[in-house]
Structures are given as structure tokens and as C-alpha cells.
Amino acid sequence: MSTRLTTGGRLLNKAKQVTFSFNGKQFTGFEGDTLASALLANDQMMMGRSFKYHRPRGVVASGAEEPNALVNMGQGGKFEPNQRATTTELFDGLTCTSQNHWPSLEFDVGVVNNYVARALPAGFYYKTFMAPAAAWKHVFEPIVRHSAGLGKAPKDRDADRYEHFYAFFDVVVVGGGVAGLMAAKAAGQAGAKVLLMEQTAHWGGRAPVDGGKVDGVKVDDFIDATVAELEAMDNVTLRNRMMGAGVYDHGYILGYERLTDHAPLLDGPRHRLWRIRAKQIVTATGAIERPLSFAGNDIPGVMLASAMRDYIVNYGTSSGDRVVVVANNDDAYRTAFTLKIHGLEVPVILDARPNGGGALADAAREQGFRVENGKGIAKVKGGKRVTGVAICAQAGEGAVLEEIACDAVAMSGGWSPVVHLWSHCGGKLIWDEAQAHFRPDPDRAPTSHDGNAFVVTAGSASGPLKLGDVLVDGQKAGEVAAEAAGFAVTSAEAPKGEVHDEAPLVPCWMMPQGAGPKLRMKAWLDYQNDVKVSDVKLAAQEGYESVEHTKRYTTLGMATDQGKLSNINGLAVLSDALNQPIPATGTTTFRPPYTPISMGAIAGEARDEVFQPLRRTTIHDWHEANGAFFEPVGHWRRPYCFPRGRESHADAVKREINQTRESVGLLDASTLGKIIVKGPNAGKFLNMMYTNMMSTLKVGKCRYGLMCNENGFLMDDGVVARIDEDTFLCHTTTGGAERIHGWMEDWLQCEWWDWQVYTANVTEQYAQIAVVGPNARKVIEKLGGEMDVSKEGLAFMEWKDGKIGDFDARAYRISFSGELSYEIAVPASQGRAFWDALLEAGAEFNIMPYGTEALHVMRAEKGFIMIGDETDGTVIPQDLNMQWAISKKKEDFLGKRAQMRDHMASEDRWKLAGFETEDGSVIPDGAYIVDHGTNANGQRNTQGRVTSTYYSPTLDRGIAMGLIHGGMKRLGDVVEFNKVDGSTVKAKVVDPVFYDKDGEKQNV
Amino acid sequence: MLTLQCPYCGVWAEETELHAEGEAHLKRFGPDSDDADFESYLFMRENPKGVHLERWRHASGCGKFFHAARSTTTLEVFGTYSAQTLEPPQDIKDKISAKIPNWSWREFS
């Protein structure tokens, strides 16, 4: 069993006991524990179940690479799934539950998958569920949905706060092990502004566990002294509980700082995402031990040798009483020594190397350990816990030589440098034959904007694993980085670390090397995703030769640990199956983040009202105070309607329309884009931007214009007013102002830069209010002022500057409703006062504001198109029967050439028409006009679609516009629109102008 | 998250401040052009592994469009330059040649 020892536990504060709960059971641990070490101390080796087969799983590792020990943490607004027990610091009151089982961790129904594992081989997702078609929906999908997924999705709103932090450094060092400390010190001493981050709460990495001396003092003391030195340096910032999450272009690096995960009662944000720009980055990210692939290597109790050592030294926790050590390298002997020192039994050390180990192996024999060279594990015995191992010759096929009882297995397949951050931004790797791992190739580093390397690796992340080499490499990395960041470096001699001679490891990708199919089926590569040696072999056999394809086919390395343990073993097995060297297979791509980071940290402060800026018109407050129901339009909120009391939205819209058509209404049109185009060549320029001829527009007049992109498709529309000979004011759609301004600038800056034109986006400089309806003129005249707004004084499609009441007004006689209408712009500062004045003046006419829905209905009644309704980026003006707005005299305008292409000129294009249902009902949004027959997929053929559809209060019936094959040639035809319920509704093709066809009302 | 120096206002701008605006040095073909030229103008774009000439806009800054010569593989920026030119300046071409002899991009080399 696993238990708390009386010895060890250098990170624990045994004076401070804490209580926590796991699956509802109360446990105790010590301050300084991780959740994993505390669970182990309570003999809770089994911490979860695997994803696919629901096999019992125990903790394997002691750090960020842990694939099995994932828990649901917290409750309510603090709930979070998939938290690694190994990186979760224990605190008083912690509650968590294990994942991926039903009804309980101990007894799980899903484990039936384990017994039908033969039917769930690699790629079973792609091979099963294919037929019959109906079975997917009714049989497979419900089952898959019930059993799939790790953890539970949070149900409540996240109760914590998060923030982003921007920072700039000369040198950022990732990893606070001895290499990182050395690098930070070297760079700091050179004068660089340095940030050193460490993902755990402790400095020194695993050096204190592995032991040894530096310049004659214990490595622990060396670490303390170095940290103290760094803390004393003003130009060095140290941050623990902060992970280097990703390295990006040009020295951009993300730091993920966990501020309160270990102490939820602390004030302040839970996570802080550091967005750092660094001149140089040092990755001192260490190395991760590899598992060995033998049958039953996933049974709880089988752990990485280094992790078992960590649990004893750091947390005073044993993983078992009798531990078999199995390895292909010398490092694992340290675990055997540690076990023995702390009074635990090691019945045998199995060294897979035919000639065994070096000095450490000799020392082991001297101390009386039984060491077996050339031996391995044929099979681990046990179910929810290891009960023993069967020993075999590594060179053979698994014939059992002996069975040994034990309750834990410490395995080591060698070490792989953590190359993730190096690789994120293009750093390349080389295969190191001696150590059997990929390590960064210093000659092919990630390069920055100046073409020079901006990442350098330090310590084990570079490849070397011995203390002495790590210290030297760490110091060198700090010096290289400081120098590259522009600091003068005086090379000092690195402290000397104690180095033991170690015999080289011998790669061991499968144990035993000749393991047959039965053993391979139980030899796990990826624990979390249940990928076994047999799956990778099968993938290779089925032709998945690329490592990227194999990954996706088998899901190897696709779990939340992203293959930290499984990657190298998996591709070694693949290489073997493909009979090619490992470097020829290569690795999959390393992508950020290094370990999952919280969605909250990514969002930072961007939630609720600061999620994005809200643009408010000068009249916005009035809308809010008067019960407006808003809809988002771009970053604006526009009133959709102004419901009164318990009035429904539909009733409000109807009231607003009736009032406007019968008397007078007000619209806050301030959001419409307003762009000034000015200069001697302004007319020539607008002739290019619009399909219409704008250069002939007379001063004082307005013209409605269309804008197309170079593909010929409509992109915006609006009224252009000529202010003087050199000046035009172009109105755009509300959502289009910035885009169209940019579009104009693009052509002026990049194509016709010799034309004398400048533009200014003055959208927010004006408040613009439409006064609309038969009584509009009376309301304006009542305000007084000098402006003549009579039919003769300000005719339809004219504009005029002057005083209306006390206001500096520019009045445009334009109409989007078909009624007598004035759109009046006043300086933004006068907007609200003008609105109030109009309301007061219009009181006797029952004046009321109307919203965007009334605007839409009224324009549809008039057959006016709306960008985004009638257009969708594939519609040209000709489709909307707007040839009248396309100048035939102009040689050129944007979109003209495209509109000459065959397909654009085709008679088969769907074109605009109006539609009236026979029963007066409203056609559903998005409905298609069905045609005879079906297409290749068995769907009804279509011959058109609705683009705008409304209930018209004016006509008291449903009206619609749409695009139909044949367009207005189909007048009088009766067609069918589909409905959501599968039925259709009949409608007649009519003129899209439903109201005041001759335009008399707007021209009075 | 690249950084580019705006050649107009001199600011070293981060990618969040910029808009990518597609390929540089496109020649516009208008109403008189034949189908092949027009198709090429509308749709045919370079997708190089290596040197690329691009348009960028300092959108959340001075608003100017400019050109950048950079490597899509090494992320090296050889230079940014005015959008009001028909070809990259000689000093930038030299800088590219120094790193990548015999480079070419459309008609430039």
C-alpha cells in the first residue's frame, strides 16, 4: 500500500494538517502536499479511470506530465474539470471528485469496454457507426455521448477574476531549476532585465531530489543561495507558480501565473496571463522521464521511477512497500537507493541492458540489491493495484522466468528534454542517438524579426542530464541570451556540480523486445487516451505512415497531457513498424499551451461590460430611460422598438409604423456612417468607388449610391451629398462606416496615390435624426429658425445648412420610409437637446420614436433593399434590378469588370422580386423557394430564397422580397416557400414595391 | 504575434495593432482586360515558403497602408516600405539577397 512515511517530505510542513475531500470521503494531508501526494499518503492510489476502456488508473508522474490523475475540482462557480492532482497544491477544504466513471470510481459500468477492447481497435471511430444510417442517431450517438468526455462541463458562471499583464524584458528564463537559476543569474549579472518563471511553487527543479553537491555544498543550499542572490538583484524578477505557456513570433511569450489556486481565500485574481515581449528567451524546461511499454504498465502502482522518488523525498509518501524497479538506464538506480534509505523493500532491479549499468549499478550490488541484467517485465499482475510482476528476458518474447510479488513498479525508459517551447515558434530538433531522445538543434533555433535566434535552451532541456553539465549549460545559456540582447558578458566559471559516471542507456521501446500480439495489446503508450503498442502497429499496417496521421487515427498524444509521456515511445513503435529510423518518422507538432491554461486566463478582464466597447449615440441615454429594446448593430446598440408598458414587441413596431405613416415619427440615425471625401479629384474618386456617376452631382443635391468590391458584389450603399465643388459627404450603413473608410483609404493610398483626395470619418461628429411622416415639416417649422424646409425651399433629394430653432443643422431631404422625411444632422454636442426639442414640438402630433424594426418594415414596404438582407456577398446590383444605379457612361468603377464576367451576366441568376402569400401569412426567415425534383442528396431542388419578410401593418398582411430564378419575369407566378415544419406556403410573385408605387408621399 | 515597424509613423507595432491586407504589388486589371488577366488579378495569389511581400495597415495606429518583406519560414522581416511604390526598394532587395541568394517573388528577384 501507499502511505505516509516518517522520513522524507522536505516540502511538507508537518505541523500544519489540512483536510480535504475526494469523492465525498474526508482525508487529511499536510501543508506543502500536492493533491496527488496527499491521496497517495491515504492509500488512494487509484485516482481515475481511462477514457476509452475505463480501466482503473493510478498516478504515474509527479508533475505537469501526469496523464491519469485528473479530477473535477471545486464546486459551483469554482468548479473546474480535468485538474491534474500532481500540480494541484493541497489546501484546507479542497473538494474534488474523480472522473470518467459511473456509478463510482471503484465500480464502473463503462469498464465493459475493457472486455470488448478487441472490438475497439485504433480508428474504431472511423470503422464503426457507419451503417445502418439511422443507427447513428438512435443507438450510437446516445451511447457515445454518455460515455465520452473527460470530466464534467462547469454549469455555473465562473466566480473568479482573471487578468492580463503586459511586460517587456531583455531575457525571460522559463524554468526555475538549477539551469534556469544559473541562466537568470548570468543574464542578470550582465545587466539584462530578467524574468525568471517557475511553474511549481519551488525553486531548484528536481536537483534536490536527485541530490549531489555543487562546489562542495549540498545542492539544496546552493539553490537557496542562488535564489537569494537573484532576489537581491533589482533587474531580476522572480515568479513561481508561473508556467511558460507558449512562445510566439518575434519574442512574444505567454506566462500563466496561478495566484490563488493554492489558497482560494486570497484576494485578487485567480490567474494572470503575462503577455511578454522578450528580446531573448531561455527555455530551462528540464526533461521528462519516459515510461516503458510492457504489458500491464497501466495498472495502478506502476509509476515513473523519478516520480516515486519525488513522492518520497518531497512529500514523505511511499507508493508501495515492495517495489520492483525496471529500467534501461542508470538514473533509476537512484530510486532504488531512495526506497531503501526510507526503509522500503526492493526485491529486484531489472536492468533491460544486456550488460547492465555503470557505477550506480555496482553500488547497488554492493548494497545488496538483486540486480538482473538483460531482464524485463513480461507482464504486471493485478487489477486495481499491482500484485506482482512476471520477469522475462528482454531479448525474448516474454517467456516467464519468475514471478515476484510486489505492490508497485518503478519504471524508467530514459529521459526526453522538454522541447515544447523551443519548438512552438519553429525551433528544430535532432535525434540524439546516445540518449535516445530528440533534443533542440542549436543551429536551427527559432528566429526573430532580425533573422537571429531568440530562443536558447538551458540544462536538461538542451540534452545534458548530469548536474555538472546542467550547471555549465545553464550559465552559458544566460550569457548567450544576455549577449544577444545587447549586453556585455564577462564569462565566469560555472559552479562545479558533482558528476557520477553513468553507463549509456540502451533504447527499449517494447518490453520484451519480441512481445507478441497478446502482450502488445496490454502495453500502454498513451494512458489517458488508451492507446497501446498494438494500436500504433495496426495504424502502420493500415497505411498510416505519417506520424501526424497516426496520431489522429489512434488518438496517440491527443489527450490533455498532449503526449508528454507517450510521444517518443509511440513514434519509436511506429518507426519500428515502418522499419525506419526514428528521425525519419519525426515528431508531431508541438503547439502551445504547454499544459492547458484556463479559459478565464485567456479571456482576462474581457467579460461583461468590458468584453467589448459599446458605442453610444448622444441620444442613447434617452432610449435607455424610455424602455428601448436594443439590438446590437456593429458595436452600437440601436433601439429595435420602444415597447410601452406590457406591449409586445410586435405591437410596438405596429404602433410606431402606423404613427409614422399617419402623422410623424423620429429615428435616431446617428449611427449611419458619415465620411467626408474632399479634394480636387474627389468626384473622379467617387466615380470609381460607386457604380453611379457621382462627379455630375450638383452642389446641394443628394444621390443614392451603390458600392461594389472588385468581385462585382454589393458591399455597401448610402446617400451621397455634394457639399461644395471639392467636397462630398458619403453616408454608409451603420456597420460599414469603418470598413468603407478603410476601403477608400486603401485605394487612395495604394492605387491612386497621385489623386488629390482626402477622407475623414466624421460618423461620431454628428447626431442625425430622421423626422418622418406627413407632419414632419410641421414639426420642424414649429421649431422655427431661418431654414426654409418647404417643398420648394428644400426639395426631395436636396440638402441645406442653416438654423432650425437654435440648432446648427444640416437637413437632408431623403427618405428610407417612403414618407415625407428630413434627416437632420446637428453637431454631436447638440444631439440630445435637438431630440428633446423635436419631441416637444411634435407633441401635438403625438410624435414618437421608432426603432430599427419599424425602419426595416417601412423600407421593405417600399421595396428598398438593405445591405445584409438582400445582399450576402454574392449579390450584384443587377440581381436587385438596380441597373438604374449603374452608370453606363463610366469607363471604369470598382466591380465593373467583374460584372462583365459570364456568370455575372447570366440570365440564370436569381433576381429580386416581391412575394405575397396567398393566405396573407408571413414567410419564415431564410425560406427557400422549392422547385420540382430533388438533387443528388435527395433534397428538394430550389429556385430562389426569401431575403426580407415581414408583417406589414400598413397592408395588414405578410410581405416579402426575395431572389428567384427569372426575377420579375415571373410576375404573377405562384411559388412555394418551404417552412420549418416541412410543409410549404404558396406565394405570388409581385412587384417588390408594396406601398406608394409612384413615390408621391415622399415628394410632397 | 509579429511586430512590424510602420514606415510612416515609425512605431514598432504589434500584430494586434495591424491588419493584414494580403499580397503586395498587385496590378489592377480593369474593364479592358481579358479574362485571364482579370482572373489572375482577382484570384491568383502567391503562397510562398520563404520571402513574401505583403500589404499591412497600421489600422489601430496612424491608419497608413504599407508593405512588408518578410520570410514566412524564419519570420525574419527584411523591411517595411511605402505602399506608394511599384516595387520593393533596392536596399530591401539587397537585404533579402544577402540572406537568400537567388530568391524571387513574382517578377522581383
In short:
The complex is a heterodimer of chains A (1004) and B (109). Chain A has 1004 residues and is α+β, with helices and mostly antiparallel strands.
How is the quaternary structure best described? heterodimer
Radius of gyration of chain A: 37 Å
Distance linking N and C termini of chain A: 95 Å
Q: SS-based structural class of chain A? A: alpha+beta
The residue fraction in helices of chain A comes out at: 10-25%
Please summarize the sheet with the most strands of chain B. 4 strands, antiparallel
Could you name the CATH homologous superfamily of the largest domain in chain A? Answer: Probable tRNA modification gtpase trme, domain 1
Strand order of the largest sheet of chain B: 3-4-5-6
Low-confidence stretches of chain B: none
**Total strand segments of chain A:** 51
Would you mind describing this structure in some detail?
- The complex is a heterodimer of chains A (1004) and B (109).
- Chain A has 1004 residues and is an alpha+beta fold.
- Chain A folds into 6 domains: 156 residues, 2Fe-2S iron-sulphur cluster binding domain, sarcosine oxidase, alpha subunit, N-terminal domain (Ubiquitin-like (UB roll), Roll); 196 residues, 3-Layer(bba) Sandwich (FAD/NAD(P)-binding domain); 123 residues, 3-Layer(bba) Sandwich (FAD/NAD(P)-binding domain), CATH 3.50.50; 68 residues, BFD-like [2Fe-2S]-binding domain (Arc Repressor Mutant, subunit A); 207 residues, Probable tRNA modification gtpase trme, domain 1 (Gyrase A, domain 2, 2-Layer Sandwich); 128 residues, Gyrase A, domain 2.
- Helix content of chain A is 23%, strand content 28%.
- Chain A contains 27 helices and 51 strands.
- In chain A, the strands form 14 sheets. In chain A, strands 9, 10, 13, 14, 15, 16 and 30 form a 7-stranded mixed sheet that branches.
- The radius of gyration of chain A is 37 Å and the shape is elongated.
- By secondary structure, chain B is α+β, with helices and mostly antiparallel strands.
- Chain B has 2 helices and 6 strands; from the N terminus they run βββαβββα.
- In chain B, strands 3-4-5-6 form a 4-stranded antiparallel sheet, with helices on one face. A two-stranded antiparallel ribbon of chain B has the order 1-2.
- The model of chain B has no long low-confidence stretch (mean pLDDT 96).
- Chain B is 17% helix and 28% strand.
- At the A-B interface, α22 and α26 of A face α1 and β5 of B.
